[in-house]
From TrEMBL:
Residues 10-275 form the Protein kinase domain. It holds the Pfam family Pkinase. It comes from the Bacteria. This is non-specific serine/threonine protein kinase. Residues 483-508 have a biased composition (Low complexity). Keywords: ATP-binding, Kinase, Membrane, Nucleotide-binding, Serine/threonine-protein kinase, Transferase, Transmembrane, Transmembrane helix.
């Protein structure tokens, strides 16, 4: 079959797609004998005076870009074969699918969406450093290769087009896809690199939720929302999305450029930090006891031709808001032992004051129930009654020792150590349970020394309730809070953790 040949060099083999500005073909460069992508622009555009010069100028600028995330521009020209000049652009052929096609197959795992947006930001960081603003970042202009890498196409084209459109319409409105247009593109103001960051915000929203932030019946309605509407929270459509990711999108979508991220690097850093916050963080090995891990892994759809590198984290990202993780850890085992001891103590007659046996029994049951959710919280609940019983048996009691200075000092020191242990256990999500156990022993021994009347059981009940509520609230907050993980090399930490075989079961 005869193929069309442009500029006596590029043989158009197959049409890859058709967009607002023209048609993209897979082609063979006969001179260099390689596959390329050729975009022919509609003949109408070629009729616009000066368009060709502008188009060539922008293509030359874009050709200076050299980055793995940017589809390289090889050549630009016009073919006079059909009578009128038909402008075309020759660029690197990217095997793979545009994100618009990938999205049509369904939602991506959060970690993958974040990874892809991060790669787009890397590419933009490079182009912005070369003073090239893309101006038409959208899923159709981001190609995903089989190895999970991203290549942004169409650098420079939007600029050439917007200049023509500005002249034709008096505004830049005619150019770009309404769903991703920044306010400054709509009202004809100056654009700069932050215009692209706005579009990445829209892109990320769509990658996470399947739809851009603003939709409507008409382009006009969408543009009006870009100018005036409060951006919707992506988490409203994607439950469980870390609030930090919402916040990144919200910031990128500021109407006023000065309120957005200063540059692509800053936005990428914020996104990475937000991703660290994603409950996805640990790359966990599912165990027989972790029914959810297995189910998610088995049921995870293949979102793209080849699972990108963020995939394991992506799977983990699809977890329940209240993370219940059954994994044997030292902290979990100690919490279980505490449940057992609290149960034994509740059945024995060591302390026959007030309702202590009921409280100990309640603590044992509560600890067992809370254990799968948070071993730390379980430790805080069950080791209280155990420590109280031990304190009662302890010889360090003022009743028998009196106000002997030595013992007062020891009791005071124990009290101080208890405060430190509580602070450590309150903060440490991974294995704070151990510190909380130490808190109970030192703290109650100290309390027992100073209060040797009947009130101390009341003091104990108040402490038990207070500690349970404080740690419980902190665990809850930690599970919903944006991560502190930006700086922490997660992978390494988790790998080390896994290697040590002590991955916090039920972290928190
Ligand atoms: N360099 C390329 N390599 C491979 N396919 C491409 C390339 N550039 C574009 N395409 C494909 O061609 C389609 C049409 O592109 P385009 O004409 O720019 O329209 P739009 O970007 O509006 O979809 C894209 O969606 C993409 O699937
Ligand atoms: Mg395109």
């Amino acid at each position: 079959m005869e193929h069309r040949i442009l500029g006596e060099r590029y043989e158009l083999v197959e049409q890859l797609g058709h967009g607002g500005m023209g048609t993209v073909h897979r082609a063979v460069d006969r001179r260099l004998r390689r596959t390329v992508a050729v975009k022919t622009l509609s003949a109408e555009l070629a009729l616009q005076p000066e368009f060709l010069a502008r188009f060539q100028r922008e293509a030359h600028a874009a050709a200076a870009l050299n980055h793995p995330g940017v589809a390289t521009v090889h050549d630009v020209g016009e073919d006079a074969g059909g009578g009128s000049a038909e402008p075309y652009l020759v660029m690197e052929y990217v095997p793979g699918r545009a994100l618009s096609q990938v999205l049509a197959d369904g939602l991506l795992p959060v970690a993958q969406a974040v990874d892809l947006a991060g790669q787009v930001l890397d590419a933009l960081e490079h182009s912005h450093r070369h003073a090239i603003v893309h101006r038409d970042i959208k899923p159709a202009n981001v190609m995903l290769t089989a190895t999970g890498r991203v290549k942004v196409v169409d650098f420079g084209i939007a600029k050439a087009l917007s200049e023509v459109a500005t002249r034709l319409t008096g505004t830049g409105v005619a150019v770009g896809t309404p769903a991703y247009l920044a306010p400054e593109q709509i009202n004809g103001a100056e654009t700069d690199h932050r215009t692209d960051l706005y579009a990445v915000g829209c892109l990320l929203h769509e990658l996470l939720t399947g739809r851009p932030p603003y939709t409507g019946d008409s382009p006009f309605s969408v543009m009006h929302q870009h100018l005036a509407a409060v951006p919707p929270a992506a988490s409203a459509l994607r439950p469980g999305l870390p609030p930090a990711v919402d916040e990144v999108i919200r910031r990128a979508l500021h109407k006023n450029r000065a309120d957005r991220f200063a540059d692509a690097t800053e936005m990428k850093a914020a996104l990475d930090a937000a991703a660290g916050a994603a409950p996805a963080a640990p790359v966990r090995t599912p165990t027989a006891l972790d029914p959810r891990a297995g189910a998610v892994a088995a049921g995870a759809p293949a979102p793209s031709p080849a699972p990108p590198r963020g995939e394991p984290a992506g799977r983990a990202a699809r977890r329940w808001p209240a993370r219940v993780v059954f994994r044997p850890t030292a902290e979990g085992a100690v919490a279980l032992l505490g449940c057992f001891l609290a149960l034994v103590i509740s059945r024995s007659e060591v302390i026959e004051v007030g309702r202590f046996s009921h409280v100990a029994l309640g603590a044992a049951v509560a600890g067992a129930v809370l254990l799968p959710w948070s071993a730390r919280l379980a430790c805080a609940v069950v080791w209280g009654p155990v420590a109280e019983a031990v304190a009662v048996w302890s010889e360090l009691s003022r009743g028998s020792l009196g106000w002997d200075t030595r013992y007062v000092v020891i009791a005071l020191l124990l009290g101080a150590v208890a405060a430190l242990c509580f602070a450590a256990g309150y903060r440490d999500e991974r294995s704070g349970g151990f510190a909380l156990i130490a808190f109970w022993f030192t703290g109650l021994t100290s309390v027992w020394f100073f209060l040797d009347d009947l009130h101390k059981i009341g003091v104990f009940y108040v402490l038990l309730l207070g500690v349970t509520l404080a740690v419980g609230a902190q665990v809850l907050k930690a599970r919903t809070r944006p991560p502190r993980a930006a700086a922490e090399p997660r992978g390494t930490a988790d790998a080390a953790h896994a290697a040590a075989g002590t991955g916090a079961a039920a972290r928190g």
